[in-house]
Amino acid sequence: MIETEVKIKVDNKKVKEIIKFLGDPKYFNQTNLIYQNCNGFLRLRKEKGNTIITSKGERKDDKFGSREEIEFSIKGEKGFSILRKILEKIGLKETFYYYKKRACFEFGLCLICLDCVTNGTYLEIESKSNEDISRTINFFDLYEKDIERRAYHKILQDDLHRKNL
After folding, report:
1. Exposed, middle or buried: residue 130 (CB in 10 Å: 0-12, 13-18, 19+)?
2. Which of 22, 8, 20 is nearest to 108 (CA)?
3. Furthest C-alpha separation in the chain
4. How far is residue 133's CA from residue 135's CA, in Å, rounded to a whole number?
5. Domains by residue range for the chain, with CATH
6. Beta bridge partners of 33
7. pLDDT tens, residue by residue, 109-157
8. Least crowded by CB within 10 Å, which of 14, 55, 81, 102?
9. What's residue 26's pLDDT?
10. Which residues lie closer than 8 Å to 120 by C-beta, 6 or more apart?
11. Which of 56, 46, 73, 74 is nearest to 3 (CA)?
12. What is the DSSP letter of 59?
């Protein structure tokens, strides 16, 4: 499956505008473990009492940087620690660990998520259609030039690196 999504960092004023239109967010927490590899990364996620494992390929050089995504979930949080042990046992090393608070909304043919991470809030827009993503960006008075193409773990790693310089 090909995933097409964009994320744009938004300030508190923009978050309030978005919430005013979409309604009160129902946030939930995510724990994310990243295993970097040469073709992308593997993510182990704990969310809403379940475990989700996702393989994400390299970003394509298209308008929004689509990428291949393979994902499955396991009921219950026990799977998180079991899969973590299995991945360690086969020699994969955790490269990053982060938490995210997320609220999701359906908007036309797009899934919109407000994602709160340590360096701010991002609006993530996902759809099968580049045109739907562009329309949603325009609807919320955002700009394609502000699209963040890096994955959250890369954004947060780079932010930590800058702070440590």
Report:
1. middle
2. 22
3. 47
4. 5
5. 2-164 (2.40.320.10)
6. 44, 97
7. 999 999 999 999 999 999 999 999 999 999 999 999 999 999 999 999 9
8. 81
9. 97
10. 9, 10, 11
11. 56
12. P
- Residue of 29, 27, 28, 149 whose CA lies nearest to 98: 29
DSSP string, 82-141: HHHHHHHHTT----EEEEEEEEEEEETTEEEEEEEETTEEEEEEE-S-HHHHHHHHHHTT
- DSSP labels for 135-161? HHHHHTT--GGGEE-S-HHHHHHHHHH
* Whether the predicted pLDDT of 1 surpasses 90: no
pLDDT at 38 over 90: no
Q: Tens digits of per-residue pLDDT, 43-65?
A: 999 999 999 999 999 988 888 98
Average pLDDT over residues 64-78: 93
Q: Per the structure block, which two tokens stand in for 21?
A: 């239109």
d(CA 136, CA 142): 9
pLDDT above 90 coverage of the chain, percent:
88
CA distances to 89, 151, 153, 163 from 22, rounded to whole Å, are 44, 25, 27, 34
